[in-house]
Amino acid sequence: MTIDRRSWLKGAAATAGMAATPACAVVLRRGPAPSDRVNLAVIGAGGMGAANMERLTSQNIVALADPDLSHVTKAFVDGRGAPIAGRAVLKAAYDKADKYADYRRMLGARKDIDAVVIATPDQHHAVAAKMAMERGLHVYVQKPLTYTVREGRVLNDLARGNPRLVTQMGNQGHSGDDGRRVVEMLRGGAIGDVREVHVWTNRPVWPQGVARPAAQPTPAGFDWDVWLGPSTVGWGYNPLYAHFNWRGWAPFGCGALGDMGAHLIDFPVWALEPGLPTRIETRHSAWGENERPAEAAEGDRRGSYPLVTVTHFEFGNATGGPVKLTWYDGGLMPPTPRGLPPGATMKPEGGVLYVGSRGKLMHETYGQNPVLIGDGAAGRAAAIPQSLPRIQGSIDGHEMNWIRAIRGEEKVSSPFAVAVPLTETMLLGIVAMRAGQPIEYDGAAGRITNVADANRYLGRTYRKGWEL
């Protein structure tokens, strides 16, 4: 019997998800020949896409899709326009790859793609991922996984129905050694029972809380219609949206919470197993108003997200008992905990503080540099054995972990089964912000129970031709 290359890759990926048996172990130790390299495409090839693909140059990069190829070229030069030596291999791969403005055309035309990296603005994530998965392609999707709660559930259902597809969200801290040790220490009782968590970030570091600017002429070669994609707003081009700055604008991104929550909230959700939040309230500074509301679709009248937010999550169904988690962005932080060891500080860039019945634990954004606070906490932590596997390359190995999982060599670190509930938790903070009042949430039903009208914020409408 002859097995084609794609069937082998799919079978290997399925094998990687099974419990290891002696027969299975032979497959897992198999060294793929050069011809078994994964054929990759990237959607959103500049910016974060280039950062992801730089770690994947050992594979075959066969195609890329980006509505602004001139922006992609900027990924290979520094601020002075000089070539970045460390990206020469990626540049050579990009130069050889087929190029498209519209990923719909790429996915329709190329039949040799095995897997796709998606690093677009948030409004495209679910649409691009669903298209790729429906074509039998493995997907690596940047965080936040989706723009809305309902999109996450659609992707999760698709992943469950196609277990041979290897899915990964780009929250690289999930593959980090320090972050995995944090989870082990918390689960092992190093600081006792945790009922209170504080999470903070210095984001936004892009424009937020500002009014929408007037449209400018679209730069030559930039397909603005494709960049808008599923979004229903009729906004013209402005550099205040593209490229990096889209994160702060409601039709395109998910603000600071969507940008950094996947890194920071990941660890308390992973370690404490709280389930979905049951009550959420977001306090915030003023929204940046859309000065041209007649041009905007209903529900998109707000322009940029508030500059500062504080979101209170209550997890009433947490495994170990109710948990409260407070999110701070825009530079706000919780009070400094008493008893910090000499030299330890709360990093303004971001961190997580767990308050336990027998001490406290604090770490940085990606789970790094954990600090134990309280008498006996360090000793208890030292006695807790390793229980989670370590990922080759730690944080820097997150992309190749996905490749190795596709090849059947190991389990994937942050599949959609993990990423979807985490993303849903984050996005519910934005839903509460839009609702303007506390919301009570039935996670099993995926429904807000106390403010019926707020349920519309769990989903969205799509522009024709870009439907989910």
What is the CATH class name of the largest domain? Alpha Beta
Question: What is the level-2 CATH architecture name of the largest domain?
Answer: 2-Layer Sandwich
Number of domains: 2
> Major β-sheet, in short?
9 strands, mixed
Total number of helical segments? 15
- Assembly of the depicted chains: single chain
Q: Roughly how many Å is the radius of gyration? A: 22 Å
Distance N to C terminus: 38 Å
- What is the typical, i.e. mean, pLDDT? 92
Low-confidence stretches: 18-34, 293-300
Name of the CATH superfamily of the largest domain? Dihydrodipicolinate Reductase, domain 2
> How large a portion of the residues is in β-strands, by DSSP E?
15-25%
Per DSSP E runs of 2 or more residues, the count of β-strands stands at 17
Structural class by sheet pairing and helices: alpha/beta
Residue share in helix: 25-40%
Shape: globular
Q: What strand order characterises the main sheet?
A: 15-14-13-7-12-11-8-16-17
CATH fold topology of the largest domain: Dihydrodipicolinate Reductase, domain 2
Domain Gfo/Idh/MocA-like oxidoreductase N-terminal: 39-166
InterPro entries: Gfo/Idh/MocA-like_OxRdtase_N, Gfo/Idh/MocA_oxidrdct_glycsds, Gfo/Idh/MocA_OxRdtase_bact_C, NAD(P)-bd_dom_sf, TAT_signal
Organism: Stakelama saccharophila
Domain Gfo/Idh/MocA-like oxidoreductase bacterial type C-terminal: 209-268
Question: In summary, what is this structure?
Answer:
Residues 209-268 form the Gfo/Idh/MocA-like oxidoreductase bacterial type C-terminal domain. This protein has helices spanning 5-16, 22-29, 47-54, 69-73, 88-96, 103-109, 125-134, 149-161, 177-187, 224-228, 255-264, 266-272, 377-382, 398-406, 416-435; strands spanning 39-43, 60-65, 98-100, 115-118, 138-141, 167-169, 194-201, 279-284, 288-289, 302-304, 309-315, 323-328, 350-356, 359-364, 371-373, 439-442, 447-448.
